[in-house]
Amino acid sequence: MIRMPGQSHQGPLPPLTDEQRRLEQELRSHVQMLAGQIGERNVFCHDRLVMAADYIRTSLSGSGYEVKGQSYEVGGFGCENVEAEIRGSLRPDDIIVIGAHYDSVQGSPGANDNASGVAAMLALARAFAQTRPARTLRFVAFTNEEPPLFQTRYMGSRIYAKRSRERGERISLMLSLETIGYYSDEPGSQHLLFPLNLIYPSIGNFIAFVSNVENGPLVRKLVGSFRRQAQFPSEGGALWGLVPGVGWSDHWAFWKEGFPAVMVTDTAPFRYPAYHLHTDRPELVQYARMARVVSGLQAVIAEMADAEQ
Known about the structure:
eight-stranded mixed beta sheet; globular
């Protein structure tokens, strides 16, 4: 399923609103803390992984949430998923998960991958903190997404999704915020593989909503909502799960448990020149464009949380 509803924004971006300017600074602050001050964070730099989890917990608590942790061990090291939720007012058992992994790959401070996604999750949690959505909103920071634990039983989102299945939770949507801070208006800046390069733009200035074929209707719904409410280029793809990149984040773990899940991404290695490198630093993240994306996602999540169906 390639055809998406509505039209992707074209032409100059509108000026930032006052709220988007404030959001831009909030996102910058989170990325600077996670990637600039804490830096590389994984089980091989365990003290900094713990520091990142503590920062996320403090941020969510500061927004007024009761914060919970899901702890487990990897090679004798304690690891933790961090979560907070707003209980739904009308459909509390219908859960929307907004998640991002907070670890970085070895040798990288992980500004775009994935401090950008965590910053967005924290900003969205703050934005919704005083609201009363019909459905439950759950904000989760996952650990251990990066290799060598990627798509293993130690991947934080894998452990989390399995627990959700065991508890009989009804997750109607999981949004994986994965590497969302880099954009380019240069021709040829998007490097997708054949045959996707024949279908999607060759300029890497868009945000992408990506999932497998089974979740095609959901991708269409999300893209349609984003295009109605955000003036920012967007693309959607519901593709075979084996296509490189389609399952490369925490949404994969939710697929494995039968939950509908979609990745929101700037397409990471197919655009970002510092992907998984030591140069993935805060100064490469484009906060103004990222603020526009997060603002649009806020509107999409609000619509999904209160939709009749």
